[in-house]
Amino acid sequence: MIYLGTFSRSLAPSLRIAYMVLPQALRREFRALQPSGGCTVSRFEQQTLARFVSEGHYARHLRKMGIMYARRCAALCEALLVIPGARIQGEEAGLHFLLTIEGKTEAQLVERAAQSGIPLRGLSAYCAHTKPDPATVVVGYAGLPDDQVEGAVQALRQAWRL
Known about the structure:
Elements lengths: L2 E4 L11 E4 L2 H10 L9 H12 L2 H24 L5 E4 L6 E6 L4 H10 L5 E2 L13 E5 L8 H12 L2
Helix pairs in contact: 4-5
């Protein structure tokens, strides 16, 4: 199994540090094929991040962010579930969830939100070989400040005429 990831979303996009965890057998092959001097991240940034992780600061940061995002998600879901015909799925993981509004089409939800300056994508944009639930949009909340949750839901209700 190979693990790939970055610290861009959990710390800062400008950090631009990625990682790859390889099994021992693949590590040898990778090192043999890897060009020398190909690292674009400064040693200072690498060592600073290593210290941040090894001293437990990264784990504390993730816990703090997890609590903050869980609260934001709960508040947003609670406000959205007041909408008649609203159903939410997948709110227990990630920084987004699926919102279905009965009686509306996906196109209506996406287009009317866009007309009000609210960027939403329909679930069908993520489905290549299956047909998604009708009238389902993907709601991301990472960039939504806590004090704007109620206003955002009111703006969606107005855009959707609900």
